[in-house]
Specification:
The structure holds two protein chains of two kinds. By secondary structure, chain A is an all-alpha fold. Chain A has one domain. Helix content of chain A is 69%, strand content 0%. Chain A is globular, with a radius of gyration of 20 Å. The relative contact order of chain A is 0.16. Chain B is mostly helical. Chain B has one domain. Helix content of chain B is 80%, strand content 0%. Chain B is built from eight helices and no strands. Classes of the chains: A mainly alpha, B mainly alpha. Chains A and B meet through helix 7 and helix 11 of A and helix 1, helix 4 and helix 5 of B.
Chain lengths: 318, 220
């Protein structure tokens, strides 16, 4: 009986991330539009887009192989699993033993690999340039992400997200300069990985500097819907990771009652709203970067990760 | 000592190292001067916090001097200088930011590895402050050797002095006379450097020090 209940909570988590992801994207777009003095699309617009795309016919290029057709399902599945592993409203769910930071980085890496492959598969020059740029970003963003993971894991003594959240909630952790550096580094990685402004513009289809949109240019119908849903999930995943590691307050304990789950859910929604608002403000005040400056931006993130890990050895060496 | 107080001191000192890296990363003159003002602000906050936890009121004066002279007066003067030199809009051609950053990381690792074993008997606070201060000093030196523009080199020099202040406050009690004289010598140095910059510009019509090499008879 208990295991059935636990499975139910895990299933609720799986459904929750899928249901909330487009809302977060819609919310960020809305806030951004309001900041620019526009009315903006309604909050539920991403759901409508997905629904319409799901009903549309798929148009395939002559040159597309099975890789092109299989990729959206794999990308969506790996991203969904990764997003569902991160503790959102409750820690210590059934799958939490698999919710390892390194596993999540690997799942995202697999999704990125499939996406780059799909971009190359059709053989258009646009997809190729998108894939090559995505790989360039990944080659810098992944080490930076792993350095942040190492820092946090050294501090918490575990790579499992539930334990990290519990360890960082404990009073003994105090103020750590390493954590601040890791937070900034992870935020920079999240911005790069999600293709937000300084790195990529998520709202354009007609720019020579675009990365993500260039790879998925050939997709249509339900394939495009899956890829869009996966990119919404990825944004939610990064916000959840940042919330779970750096703002772990409010996450319900493993065997807490429904009331604690409700409190956790409210805290989670508040974190999403705050992060979405900050992202929109950040994107409104900053300009897009040149492609050749990406390495500076991500190199800075990597350096912050290194510095955070280094400074761990200075702090409180009593 | 209260762990939270220690953590906050640690946070300020670590923040100073971070701002030193931001100095290395900046390639615009105006941004560089603003980042330097931030550097001085962090130093003065750090010193003020040390005054609080060490119960050493004279350190508040040090913090005030750092705040007024280095976070306000010197940045304003530098802004005036770069506007009058006409280089406030130029982007400095920094070669290999990534490599410089890596070298900086190596220097931070070096100073931590050198300072922690050497100061094994000292208190935790002093050890950490010395390690961070050495990092800031080495990063300032790195800034001076990696930049071509004379104004950036001046800022590197001034950031070294911030590192020295951090080291001195961590070591429990620097005489106030020393601090005041250091602050004034920095101001005098700024004036001398300012005049010197204008002389260089008058003579060679640039403040890019690579242009000076051929006048020294070296092959570029």
């Amino acid at each position: 009986m208990a295991i059935a209940l636990e499975l139910l909570v895990q299933a609720a988590q799986l459904a929750l991330v899928l249901a909330l992801a487009p809302l977060l994207t819609g919310y960020v777009r809305k806030v951004k539009a309001r900041l620019l003095g526009r009315q903006g699309p309604p909050l539920l617009q991403p759901y409508r887009d997905l629904y319409r795309l799901l009903r549309k016919e798929v148009v395939l290029a002559h040159t597309a192989s099975w890789v092109f057709r299989a990729a959206p399902y794999l990308i969506f599945a790996t991203t969904w699993v990764a997003a569902a592993l991160v503790p959102t409203f409750a820690a210590g769910l059934v799958f939490s033993n698999a919710a390892d930071m390194i596993a999540i980085v690997a799942l995202l890496g697999a999704a990125r690999f499939m996406l780059a492959l799909a971009g190359l598969d059709v053989g258009t020059s646009f997809g190729g340039i998108g894939s090559s740029r995505e790989m360039m970003i990944a080659s810098l963003a992944e080490p930076a992400m792993l350095m942040v993971v190492f820092t946090v894991s050294l501090l918490a003594g575990s790579t499992q997200l539930s334990s990290i959240a519990a360890a960082l909630q404990a009073p003994g952790i105090g103020l750590r300069v390493s954590l601040a550096l890791a937070l900034v580094g992870l935020t920079m990685v999240a911005i790069a990985e999600n293709g937000r402004i300084p790195i990529d513009n998520p709202a354009t289809h007609l720019e020579l500097t675009m990365v993500h949109e260039a790879m998925v240019l050939e997709y249509s119908g339900r394939h495009l819907a899956l890829i869009e849903a996966a990119s919404h999930l990825k944004l939610l995943l990064y916000v959840s990771v940042i919330g779970c590691v750096f703002v772990p307050w409010g996450i319900a304990a493993p065997s807490a009652g429904p009331l604690a789950f409700l409190v956790g859910l409210a805290a989670y929604l508040a974190k999403l709203a705050a992060a979405g608002f900050l992202l929109a403000v950040f994107e409104s005040v900053i300009a897009k970067m040149r492609v050749f400056r990406y390495s500076d931006f991500l190199g800075a993130a990597l350096m912050l990760g290194f510095l955070a890990a280094l400074l761990l050895f200075v702090s409180r060496v009593t | 000592m209260d762990p939270l107080a220690l953590d906050i001191a640690h946070l300020f000192a670590g923040g100073l190292v971070l701002v030193s890296f931001m100095l290395l990363y900046q390639d615009r003159m105006t941004g560089l001067v603003n980042t330097f003002a931030l550097h001085a602000l962090v130093v003065s906050l750090s010193v003020a916090w040390q005054a609080n936890i060490q119960q050493a009121p004279h350190l508040y004066i040090t913090a005030t001097i750092a705040l007024v002279v280095k976070a306000i007066v010197i940045p304003l003067a530098l802004h005036r200088i770069i506007v009058r030199l006409g280089i406030h809009r130029t982007i400095e051609p920094v070669v290999g930011i990534g490599l410089t950053m890596l070298a900086g990381l190596g220097l931070v690792a070096l100073s931590i590895m050198v300072m922690l074993p050497v100061t094994a008997q000292a208190g935790t606070l002093a050890r950490e402050d010395l390690a961070f201060a050495l990092s800031v000093i080495l990063l300032g030196l790195l800034m001076m050797v990696s930049r071509r523009n004379a104004v950036s080199q001046v800022i590197g020099f001034l950031s070294i002095e911030n590192g020295l202040i951090l080291a001195a406050t961590g070591a429990k009690g620097m005489p106030l006379v020393v601090e005041i004289s250091v602050a004034f010598s920095i101001l005098v140095a700024l004036i001398v450097i300012g005049i010197f910059l204008f002389r260089i510009r008058e003579r060679f019509e640039t403040v890019d020090i690579h242009e000076l090499h051929e006048h020294r008879g070296e092959q570029p």
